[in-house]
Write a structure and sequence with these properties.
Blueprint (H helix, E strand, L loop, with lengths): L2 H19 L8 E2 L8 E3 H4 L4 E2 L23 E3 H15 L3 E7 L4 H12 L7 H4 L25 E8 L53 H16 L2 E3 L6 E4 L8 E2 L12
Parallel strand pairs: 1-9, 3-5
Antiparallel strand pairs: 2-4, 5-6, 6-8, 7-8
């Protein structure tokens, strides 16, 4: 068996296990229908080797609870974006890495949940990890929270790189002590991602384009692996977030959807 074939077989098994355990045009109006258009697919149907750790299905996120609209821990994308992600994964597998997605399509009801949470200034339960240096009253002004998200258009995803063989990560326990998302990797919440300098969804300038003296050479190199791989596959990176990429051209550049993240949303396919 070749190295690539072995990696594919291993990643397929790992992805299946993780899924089982994890049981500026003017904005357009959000679609509220319960079903996805035929252009949307489950990423696992296009590439089952890509690891999925859908954070908003869990309480380990800046809100501190499962987010509205995430009925299943799965990645849904427009088909062109999913196929492009498959091409990026094939490239990484040959180099001993795998992609891991944290979030893909995000329903408008989830974005609305973020807005309600941001307006509740008393709820700071996850501040110590995700926004330790940011006053919650500034989340809108500083651009960390907005009323619309490109994720709701279906061609944007948040993801990272994991070195093979994949090491397991323990689940988050609500109420456990938290550590800053920009601290040394060994002090952050465990993540089998390579060290990108911050954790996912870190509300801090270090999560974006930074000076070389703010990150180690290894952290910069890891970010470049992700960025170059994604750009070759047709994705564009958001400067403020190392994990955020959008496939261009978008299938739905001006439409914000609100069907739930669920296999049932794709049941017409």
């Amino acid at each position: 068996m070749t190295g690539l074939a072995s990696a594919l077989r291993s990643l397929t098994a790992t992805a299946a296990a993780l899924l089982a355990v994890a049981a500026a045009p003017a904005p357009a109006q959000a679609h509220s229908g319960p079903k996805a258009p035929k252009e949307f697919v489950a990423l696992s149907d296009v590439d089952p080797t890509i690891i999925q750790e859908i954070r908003y299905f869990t309480p380990h996120n800046f809100v501190g609870q499962p987010v509205d609209g995430y009925k299943k821990p799965m990645c849904i994308l427009t088909e062109p974006a999913a196929k492009a992600l498959h091409r990026a994964q094939r490239s990484l597998l040959r180099r001993g890495y795998s992609l891991k997605v944290y979030d893909c399509y995000r329903p408008q009801r989830a974005v609305d949940h973020f807005v309600r949470w941001a307006e509740d200034l008393k709820d700071t339960r996850m501040k110590a990890e995700f926004y330790p240096l940011v006053d919650k009253s500034r989340l809108f002004e500083d651009g960390y929270i907005a009323a619309k998200s490109g994720h709701s258009r279906g061609s944007t995803m948040d993801l990272t790189v994991v070195r093979l063989p994949v090491k397991p990560t323990r689940p988050y326990v609500p109420g456990e002590p938290l550590s800053p998302c920009f601290g040394p990797k060994e002090q952050r919440f465990p993540d089998n991602s390579v060290d990108m300098g911050t954790g996912f969804d870190c509300f801090d300038p270090r999560a974006g384009e930074t000076r070389d003296d703010q990150l180690s050479p290894k952290q910069l190199a890891n970010r470049q692996v992700l960025r170059s791989t994604m750009e070759r596959a047709g994705f564009v990176k958001l400067p403020e977030e190392w994990w955020h990429f959008t496939y261009k051209p978008e299938t739905f550049p001006d439409t914000y959807f609100d069907f739930p993240v669920s296999r049932k949303s794709l049941s017409r396919h």
